[in-house]
Amino acid sequence: MVNKTEVVDTMQALVSELQKNHAQSETTSYVSETLQKLKKSDGVAFTGSLQLFFNQANIVKISDNIQLNKEEKTLWRKLFAFNSLGNNLWGASL
């Protein structure tokens, strides 16, 4: 069972890695802003915010034209693996 802490911790690790190499990028800003929203959200607000992130993050990243390093790619994929759990129908402990 996935919990909020696992999602937030993964996103925090991603933000930390992105800030090392892409501090001024739109992608880093978007992930960081979403992280702050998720930390303040619970239940349906949390899953809704996370689903919005899943819907938009790749578009932001492609538009930003940044290349992720190996660690960033690993964290990006780990974060997006939560997308397979679905929107508000998560089997998650939030």
UniProtKB/TrEMBL annotation:
Organism domain of life: Bacteria
Name the record gives this protein: Bacteriocin immunity protein
Organism the protein comes from: Companilactobacillus futsaii JCM 17355
